[in-house]
Each structure stands twice: as structure tokens, then as C-alpha cells.
Amino acid sequence: MSTTNPNGLITRFKFQSLLRQDSAGRRIILKGTISGQPALLLVERAAFDIDPAYLNSFPRLVTHVNNLGDNDIYRWYMANSLPDGTLDQPTPPDLKLNLIYPCTEAHVAKYSFQQSRAVVETPEIYTKFVRPYMQRCREEGRLNWVFNIIEGRTEQENVLFRSEEADLKDDFLLLPDLNWDRKTIGGLHLLALVERRDLWSVRDLTRGDVAWLRHLRATLVKTVEGLYEGVEGDMLKFYVHYQPTYYHFHIHIVHVDLDPSATQGVGKAISLDNVINQLDTMSGALTGMADVDLMYTLGEASELWTKIFLPLKEGKVPKSTG
Amino acid sequence: MSTTNPNGLITRFKFQSLLRQDSAGRRIILKGTISGQPALLLVERAAFDIDPAYLNSFPRLVTHVNNLGDNDIYRWYMANSLPDGTLDQPTPPDLKLNLIYPCTEAHVAKYSFQQSRAVVETPEIYTKFVRPYMQRCREEGRLNWVFNIIEGRTEQENVLFRSEEADLKDDFLLLPDLNWDRKTIGGLHLLALVERRDLWSVRDLTRGDVAWLRHLRATLVKTVEGLYEGVEGDMLKFYVHYQPTYYHFHIHIVHVDLDPSATQGVGKAISLDNVINQLDTMSGALTGMADVDLMYTLGEASELWTKIFLPLKEGKVPKSTG
Prior knowledge:
2 copies of one chain form a homodimer.
Chain A: H1 6-11, E1 14-22, E2 27-34, E3 37-45, H2 52-61, E4 63-71, E5 74-80, E6 95-100, H3 105-111, E7 116-121, H4 123-139, H5 144-150, E8 161-162, E9 172-176, E10 189-194, H6 210-227, E11 236-241, E12 250-255, E13 269-271, H7 272-280, E14 294-299, H8 303-313
Antiparallel strand pairs in A: 1-2, 2-3, 4-5, 5-6, 7-14, 8-9, 9-10, 10-12, 11-12, 11-13
């Protein structure tokens, strides 16, 4: 019987409908029939073969290379991993390519594999070593772009919303995360930057900020519901990064349908609700998030690892990072 | 000049080395040269085209279908999305396929897109509605497989480690997560099931459990370091799910190199260090995790949504779930 030949089943699959697409579009689930009986076909892009012989010939095998744009040394493309034969219709591209040419050693370092380490930042390590490091980052002008946006000097085309709250302390801007295409609602990813400048990170939040945080969260829900049709408050998740990329307090807002990736990883993201809640249930003897251990992951090439956590692991005293 | 033709650059790329492979193997970063100058080529599997015309012809286009195994109505394969031409070497498969045939309505429901909702489970909702639901799940025998493994009756081939601690309360089993191939160290994903049966979920952890949790975490680090060469304690992350899939307390242990996916999503995963820490800094007036709000996401088809949180959203009183 033909059903006993598992390979033949695939080509006999008759497509009816797409049930869903996920994993950043790289998985599709098709509903259909085989010999009149219902069947599901789950199709996923496979991992690449990393056999050097294949990688060697790879650039020659690529076909239908279609340049989508370029900026200086950066170029991006869609392409097919194989020549298509004599088919009735062109096959959709199955590859995204990014070319950096000519590249520098800094590019190579950035894209090379880097071992990560999970570290525990105690209140003492924070106060003695990490906070001075944060201060230096702020003083070096790494936050100028943030202040320029807040003050309306640059990048206004990226400001999706600027609040006008009764209390200046409650004001914020909404920016799109770089990975959001600004239109797919299920992939919505916003950054809420507070306008006040006294909060560097989640570490600065105290028990006294619970009411402020709850008000901010509620305002953000209302604002995003108003900006994006079809988005309801319970379709949004709020989190902060620790360590963040820059030391000006900001909150990530994502749609629940967004496929969780590194931005939501354990050891990087902390649920905002969790933070509010921890502050709210904290012993009165403590001030706030500066008084707790925080676990997070660091790349071995990061300054926080090389200058603070690696020396500590080796039993040495980190040099001043301020 | 040929460098001004961006498409020609790709085929002239001369491969030197693989810098890294990530995104579950679906991105590779190649270092090489073009006309003797250094270049980086980032290659990613693209999202699928979901044009119905393409989906219709898709099963016919698939070639080199290679059946890897089957179990009842489930079959899995590797395949190529296109016929290869007359190449010197066979092209590695670029697709993973799973076929469920014949399938039922339950399969269709399981794999269809389901809207998620972010809910806040207050201590009151937990006590009145969610805990009775957990109890019913336990009484329905949904945990028999867990007890069978703990008691050594079934699935012993899946037990990677069984502890023999001085205090029975400290004993645990290590199982592989279903998504781990059991050999790639950078993708390591284990589940630690405690042998004690009084902890249903993170909700049962109290301020008095901090020392027990710290001891358990330390023992798990030592055990995993001993089982897998090259794994150091600071390459591991620990988290719990809330809601979990089953109501017997277990801890997820993953390698820091594992690409974060839904299992680490905000609204699903809570860092174990965060839990220990929250218990440790909690006001003495509170007992433990049963006294805090917990935010998490639920599919609209889940019982917790249809029976508890949807009625609450509509201002109704949920019927007894016990």
C-alpha cells in the first residue's frame, strides 16, 4: 500500500490552508489531505550544514541574488540556495544575506562567537564597581543620543509618541525597537524612554517608586492601545534589561505574539511586573532594587566581564572602573 | 568596476572560516575575502513565502525527501526545497518536515494560531481559583508519569542522574528537555525534578525555603559540572515556568549559549535566582510566593483562560474549577 511509503506521502499532500507561521516566519504549518484524509505538514527551515566543503562551494551555489539595498560597506540581499530547474513559477528566495565588505578586525570580533558567563551582581559589587562603571559610561557622552531625542534635537522621525503628562516626572517617549518593522502588530516592540534623568537602570528603583511605576505602566497601556488598533492591554508584556545597553531607564513593550528571542532571555530580561511586585513586597529594612542580588549574563569580551567579574572570579580586586 | 555590482560580490566571496552559527543553526557567519580584501558574509534562512500559489505547489517542489523515523501517525523527514541540478556534490537538506497523518481535530486545534493573553494572577485569584484547578489536575492522574519516573517504574532510560543526598528532602532527578539532542553542550537543557511531592509549583515556595533552594541550586551546579565536561557553573542559567506544564516542582537548567526561545519568554520563565532573591528580601509579614502577584501569558484555548481569567475579565465569577 502506498501509505506505507513515508516519502511518497509528502508529494501527495494536497494543501488546503495555512494554520500558522511562527519562528520568525521560518516555520509554517499546513493543513491538507492525503488520499482524502486530513493531514498536517509542519515545515521548518533546517540548520545549515557546516561541513567546510559545503561552505567552500556555498557562494557559488547561491542563485537569483537580489540586492535590496546598501549603505557604505554594508549590503543586504535575498537569494536562493539552489538553482531552480525548469519550473513553471519562480521559487521564493530562501536565504537572507548580509555582506560587509571590506570589513575590519572590529567587525570580525563583533561577529565571532563569544562565550557568555552568568554572574551574580551583589549589592556590594554594584555599589563598588558597577555603578562607577555606569557613571563613566554616562560621562563619556554615550547618552547624548538619548538626550538629543528627548530634547527634540535629533531623530524625531523615530519618536512614535511623546507624552504630555500633568506631572513632568511621568513623561516618556515611545521609540520603535530596531528589530521591529513598524507595521506588523504581532511583532510590535517598543521602547519607552522616561524623560526624567535620575534613573540610570532598574537598580535605581526604590520601594517609593511603586506608585509611579504602576501609573507609568497604566499610561503606557492606554497609549499603545490608542496608537495601534487591535492591541488590547492584555496583549502586551513589559520588561527591562539588566544590564541594559545604555544607562537611561527604559522599558521594553512587546506584543504577546512576538516570538521570544534573546531580548527576552533569562539573565537579560526582567518582567516589569516582577520588579514592581518585588519592590512592593520588600522588607521595610531595604531601600529598593539596589539592595538585591541580580543574576545576568555577560559576554567574555564585555568590559563588565574583563574589568569586574573576571577579576572577582580569580579572587582579585577589580581596578577602579570609574 | 566589478565591486560596484553588488550581486557579483557574493559569488566572488572566497570562504576562509566559520565565525559562528546561531539562531538554532539557521544563521551562519562566514569570514572570507573578495578580491583579496577581508569580508564577512552573514547567511540566514529566510521566512517562508505564504502566497497560496506557492504553498499549493510546495509539496511537489520538495525533493530528496528522507524519512528519519516514524511513530504511529507521526513521521519526520529532512528534505530539499528545490531539485538540485547537476552539481558535483549533493546539497545538504534545507528543510525539516513533520507529517501527522491522519490527523484529528485536536491536532488542528493544537497547531492553529491561538491568541495569547497576559494575565495577572493575584494571591486571591490563586487561592480561590487556580490552586483548586491545580489540585484537580493532580487528582486526575496527570502526574502519574512523574511519580512513575521518580519511583523507577518507567522511562529510566531518560533519567540522566538520580541524586542520593543525605537528606531525602534534597533529592532530585535530572531529565533531558524534549528539545535537547542530548549531546550538543551549547544547547544543554535539563529538567531537575525534585523527589519531594509537597511542592506543586513556585507558588508553594516560602521564605523558609531559601536555604533549601540555595543548597539545591549549588548541588545542581556541581552535578551538571560533573556530568558534562567543559560546563562550568557560570555557564548555566536556572529558571522555572509559571504556569508550568505539570504541577510538580521542577527547575529548567540551560546552557548560557542556548538561543533563548519561548521557554525563556517573559510571562513564562522566572529566573530561579530572582525567586530566591525575592523570598530572601520579602517583608516578614508575608509567607512566600503565594502572597505575590504573578504575571504570565495564557493561550485563549487554555482552561485557565476560558474558566478563570476570561470570566474575571468579563466581570463574572468563575465557576468552581476544583
